[in-house]
Amino acid sequence: MKLTVWTYEGPPHVGAMRVATGMTGLHYVLHAPQGDTYADLLFTMIERRNHRPPVTYTTFQARDLGADTANLFKTAAQDAYDRFKPEAIIVGASCTAELIQDDPGGMAETMGLPVPVIALELPSYQRKENFGADETFYQIVKTLAKPMERTKQITANLIGPTALGFRHRDDIQEITALLSDMGISVNVVAPMTSSPTDITRLGAAHFNVLMYPETAETAARWMEKELGQRFTKVVPIGVGATRDFVAEVAAITGVAPYLDDSRLRLPWYSKSVDSTYLTGKRVFVFGDGSHVVAAARVAQDEMGFEVVGMGCYNREMARPVRAKARELGIEATITDDYLEVERVIEALQPEMILGTQMERHIGKRLGIPCAVISAPVHVQDFPARYSPQMGIEGANVLFDTWVHPLVMGLEEHLLHMFRDDFEFHDAAGASHHGGHAPSASVKGAPVPGPADSPRDLSKTENLDGSVIWLDAAERELKKIPFFVRGKARRNTENYAAERGVAQISVDTLYEAKAHYAR
Amino acid sequence: MTELPRLPVSGGCSDTPILKQRGQREVFCGLTGIIWLHRKMQDAFFLVVGSRTCAHLLQSAAGVMIFAEPRFGTAILEETDLAGLADAQDELDKVVDELLARRPDIRQLFLVGSCPSEVIKLDLSKAAERMTQRHAPSVRVLNFSGSGIETTFTQGEDACLASMVPVLPKDDQRQLLLVGALPDVVEEQAIGLLEAMGIGPIKVLPAPRATDDLGVGDGTVYALIQPFLGDTHDALTRRGARHLPAPFPFGEEGTTQWLAAIATEFGVSPELFEQVTAAPRARARKAVAQAAEVLRGKSVFFFPDSQLEIPLARFLTRECGMEAIEVGAPFIHKGIIGPDLDMLAEGPTISEGQDVDLQLDRALAARPALTVCGLGLANPLEAQGLSTKWAIELVFTPVHFYEQAGDLAGLFSRPIRRAEMLKLEAAE
Fold it and tell me: In a 10 Å sphere around its CB, with 0-12 CB exposed, 13-18 middle and 19+ buried, how is residue A230 labelled?
């Protein structure tokens, strides 16, 4: 039993729903109690889908348990077939139905439905959403895809995009265009946009582009073995990775590498003098493994940030994330415990977080700006405009969205210069933070959100009480702009504590500043 | 009182046969109620004993990722708990010890049953008894089920409140108990009106804190504020308290009749009742009238969601001039909802439970001007050209009593006004 407050991933059957909802002509019959239908709103509300997910839930109740839940399943499956006439059906159980052991797969097979029925075994008490998506897609591919003659011209399948994916919709368009520039057309995009009939044509492509290892790596490996299709290993997020991806595709296909970079702006924007203030900004990167590895590279090499911490919530990707962390000389945080991630961020005191919606909330509480780079998603992660993460335009998007939450270079100086202006006082916060900026407390440290957390009681025990700020130092501290004051306070206190200094004077403050200067 | 209730001439929907279909139910489970209950009860923690699905529901259902560490959490069952390798009761003790050590501010802990915990027959009442002894007197541990196999959406609040009734101290003094979790501002308005009529003492269940001196006994009369509190109603009756049946306090008319039932019980004079209610009644009517301009003559279709559907249909048809096509509710408890059913004019289909596919067929055929439904159905219906109101907002938003009557009507008129406002085609 494990105490959980927030989860990064849903249960595995939600992963299966992401596959089914992305596809057309497929229906998912899910043995599940009423209430599990909440998952529909992930798609209709967060992703603003204009149709119900193609899922029929048996919605059994307590009174059915003593009677005949198996029959309920068969009726639901038959009704679903009659109503929706899908080309194929996937069947499975949610966590509760797994316990009553009705064997939906076995039952569905005996029903003699005139379409392929694919049984899913998704262990709800061991695995999570990404596994569910990966396994479901693999089972669908394994059942429907067959070796076949290759297309005459060179084609690729784009695999991995699902419903509720982080910018999958736009990444598909970007990568399709990138390949098209190389003279390679797309055979099938799957699971999102494809039908079961399309899946049967996967074997016609010359190779696979594995866009998201989280949701399609098992299928990619199976197709490599059974259909003889190599697959790409580079996730083309960022300028360097996109160029590497082009080289990889060229190596696989024998086509000359080509990248139309006439619209690429990130390198110049990063070089232009206005970006000087980005130099060495300390960032913490967290999300799903693929996006984190890519983002860490972009942050360090293309934005000039300093990556001070990184990690992922999906253990399946621990190895590449650890490898990247080693390369950067830092420790990787592999955990799906939200509170642990928060503790790491509190300890590292980064100037910016590249994370998920969960880290955005941590950032809000701690007064640290955050840009979102990965699922789990929020309605804001489905912008109306074209906003890919991959390829040339993806790199441009990364520059904009990562710089946006930061206080800009000149703005930083102006804030400092006019700190005593009545409209520029600390509590007003930076203009673009609107009403959401944390107000500064009397002491000057950022207020850590509503006093809902017990950690407010204990977290200062290591320092406060042992170190005293002298009046002059406290006044001097207030002259430091509010958005770095919290960090200055902590650095000074750490500096003092490490040296056994009990009282912080103005000198201590500036000695600490010199010590931490980069 | 100066006006008699405007009862429908035909005799209402009390005897209308109820359409019951069996199929997929597109509803939340009772765990959802934790989202508002934990804000209301400020020293309570809700520990769901369940699966990752439960945790995912709680964070997805209302987008409540606001509080870094909320007063609810999930003890996620793992393979070892299910295979009997670990004693689930011991494991639960460990989780609760850890939790209470972290949260010394907690005075009430609710162990909340889920579908998986019910199916494996994990005895949470035994656990709650054991833990109450272990953590007494600082923490009281109770249990209830919010599982989808036993409860639908708002029934979770009912189960929670019902679990609190047996442990309330005995108190036979004459008192009024208001039952149901409301936003503080609304609760204070109701108490203010009743106190102005000289009624008291007035207590509220759930109380904001466990230490509040709430007791129950033969002298207690109670009014339900929400229509979904059937089990709590039964539990209070068993403790000797007496129910004051009334229509629910939605809209001017509902609020007046709800207050009148209490006023009659406490012997408030018609003059005093009139004096206290006249001004807010007038304000409520005026506010409703503004929103009702858009609603008058339009049709409405309710999918089952919160059990608020029948009182709301009564409000929309009688005070806003709408025409109900179908009023679907997850459960219809005639002992509680009777007064509202009496006032709802004959005509609409009254349905209980659902087969969502068949119900969608009926809605699409009827093409109502407004469809009240859950979040999973709203956008798909909008895409088919129907205007919708998400039902969950009716549970989260202050909508009870006079001062919110206009807001309540506004929740329904806004989607229709919006559909009329948007001009997304070429100008021609």
Answer: middle
For chain B, residues with pLDDT lower than 50 are 1-5
Q: Is the pLDDT of residue A426 over 80?
A: no
Is the per-residue pLDDT at A438 higher than 50? no
Tell me if A10 and B53 make a contact (CB, 8 A cut-off): yes
**B393 and B357, same domain (yes or no):** yes
* pTM across the whole model: 0.89
**Is residue B113 a part of any domain in this protein?**
yes
Same structural domain, B36 and B113: yes
Domain A12-130 has CATH 3.40.50.1980: yes
Domain boundaries, chain A: 12-130, 145-253, 266-406, 439-516
On whether both B244 and B304 belong to a single domain, the answer is no
Residue B93, pLDDT score: 95
Cα–Cα distance, A187 to B363 (Å, whole number): 40
CA A446, CA A333: separation in Å to the nearest integer? Answer: 25
Question: Is residue A320 within 8 Å of A289, Cβ to Cβ?
Answer: yes
User: Looking at the structure, do residues B76 and B186 belong to the same domain, yes or no?
Assistant: no
CA dihedral A406, A408, A411, A416 (to 10 degrees): 60
- Report pLDDT digits (tens) over A228-273: 999 999 999 999 999 999 999 999 999 999 999 999 999 999 999 9
CB contact under 8 A, A124 and B52: yes
Q: Is the ipTM of this complex over 0.90?
A: yes
Minimum CA–CA partner of B152 in chain A: A35
CATH of domain A439-516: 1.10.8.550
How many other C-beta atoms are found inside a 10 Å radius of the C-beta of residue A329? 7
Handedness of CA B132, B135, B139, B141 (dihedral sign): negative
Residue A441: pLDDT over 50: no
Find chain A residues with C-beta within 8 A of B377's C-beta: 40, 44, 52
Question: Could you tell me the CATH number of the domain that includes residue B131?
Answer: 3.40.50.1980
- pLDDT over 50 (residue A456): no
| Residues in chain A within 8 Å Cβ distance of B68 | 342, 361-362, 365, 449, 452-453
- CA A71, A73, A74, A78 torsion-angle sign: positive
Selected residue with higher pLDDT from A455 and B346? B346
Domains A266-406 and A439-516 alike in fold: no
Q: Tell if the CB–CB gap between B28 and A454 is shorter than 8 Å.
A: no
Buried b (16+ CB within 10 A) or exposed e, A375-388: bbbbeebbeeeebb
How much is the mean pLDDT over chain A?
A: 89
**CA distance, residue A68 to nearest chain B CA (Å):** 14
Q: Please, what CATH class does the domain formed by A145-253 belong to?
A: alpha beta
Instruction: Check CB contact under 8 Å for B77 and A125.
Output: yes
Q: Which two tokens stand for residue A418?
A: 């006019």
Query: Nearest-CA neighbor of A235 among A260, A258, A254, A217?
Result: A217
Give the structural domain span for B145: 30-151
Residue A319 pLDDT > 90: yes
Q: At A53, is the secondary structure helix, strand, or coil?
A: coil
B252 in the same domain as B197: yes
Write the class of the CATH domain A266-406.
Answer: alpha beta
* Each residue's pLDDT tens digit, A48-92: 999 999 999 999 988 888 778 888 999 999 999 999 999 999 999
Residue A313 structure tokens: 């919530």
- Same domain? For B180 and B75 the reply is no
Shared domain for B261 and B298, answered yes or no, is no
> Quick one: residue A287, left, alpha or beta (phi over 0 = left, psi -120 to 50 = alpha)?
left
Residues in chain B within 8 Å Cβ distance of A54: none
Tell me the shortest Cα–Cα distance from A398 to chain B, in angstroms.
Answer: 25
In chain B, how many domains are there? 3
pLDDT the model gives residue A463: 45
Burial degree of A517 (CB within 10 A; 0-12, 13-18, 19+)? exposed
What tokens were used for B169? 């101290």
